[in-house]
Design a protein that fits this description.
By secondary structure, the protein is an alpha/beta fold. The protein has one domain: NAD(P)-binding Rossmann-like Domain (Rossmann fold, 3-Layer(aba) Sandwich). It is about 30% helix and about 20% strand. The strands form two sheets. The protein has a nine-stranded mixed beta sheet with strand order 1-9-11-7-6-5-2-3-4, with helices on both faces. A two-stranded parallel sheet has the order 8-10. β5, α3 and β6 form a beta-alpha-beta unit. α2 packs across α3. The longest helix is centred in the last third of the chain and has 30 residues.
């Protein structure tokens, strides 16, 4: 079912077209914890959350790379004990994670890192988490999805029979890592949402993009990291997205 960040229409829809300044405005200030806050999506989350007036705690391996002066917890999610993350998430209204590998060589961070985040959230009673995954993950085998479909229902002919094969060859270990991450969330009993973008770009925030609940977008090959962050903040006030993946594309 296709949806949008602005409403629940059935057809694919441009989201945020009526937003004057493109900033996600919530009804109240939220206490947010952002993991991987110095990464591509994480930096955008940090900038947009602070601009919206939220109370933000950033978690990063190298806090010196943070673009905003906010309360910070230093942690390497590849090795951190979950208990060390509890002060970062305690009392948060929601957790946002930009954690994810950028290549096959870096794969193996998303699942264990998310497992530590989930354990810290469970220990402190925090329920809401939004993460960034990837568009091809719906067709990857995992413990939560042992018999995935051969093709994502939202993909067009070109993606199904050419682009997905190229992507799997180039980033197969990345998608395995992200699929394992999603499986951890599905088993966590937390209020999770996973955003599945296609190829990420560094174009500026548009606030106008297509979304689809539970599937990819036909012809959706690219999306700015800034728009992914925009959607991650937006879904915090969309309870119907809990327990779902969301496709996003320009």
């Amino acid at each position: 079912m296709s949806t949008s960040t602005a409403n629940n229409t059935q057809a694919p829809h441009k989201a945020g077209a009526a937003i004057a300044d493109k900033t996600v405005r919530h009804h109240q200030q939220l206490k947010l914890t952002i993991f991987a806050a110095t990464g591509g999506v994480g930096r955008q989350l940090l900038e947009q959350a602070v601009a919206a007036g939220h109370d933000v705690t950033a978690v990063a391996r190298n806090p010196g790379k943070l673009t905003r002066h906010v309360p910070t917890v230093t942690a390497d999610l590849a090795t951190t004990n979950p208990a060390a993350l509890e002060p970062a998430v305690a009392g948060a209204d929601a957790v946002l994670s930009g954690l994810g590998p950028h290549s096959n060589a870096a794969a193996g961070i998303a699942a264990p890192g998310t497992r530590s985040i989930v354990a810290a959230m469970q220990a402190t009673g925090v329920k809401r988490i939004v993460v960034v995954s990837a568009a091809p993950v719906g067709t990857v085998t995992s413990s939560a999805n042992p018999h995935p479909p051969k093709h994502d229902p939202g993909d067009g002919f070109l993606t199904r029979y050419l682009l997905s094969r190229i992507a799997q060859t180039a980033f197969g270990k990345v998608y395995d890592d992200l699929a394992a991450m999603e499986a951890i969330l599905r088993d966590s009993r937390l209020d999770w949402t996973a955003i599945r973008p296609p190829r990420l770009t560094d174009k500026p925030l548009s606030g106008s993009y297509r979304t689809a609940l539970g599937q990819n977008l036909r012809g959706g090959l690219f999306v700015p990291r800034a728009d992914v962050a925009h959607l991650m903040l937006k879904v915090l006030e969309q309870p119907h997205t809990i327990g779902h993946t969301i496709g996003i594309a320009t």
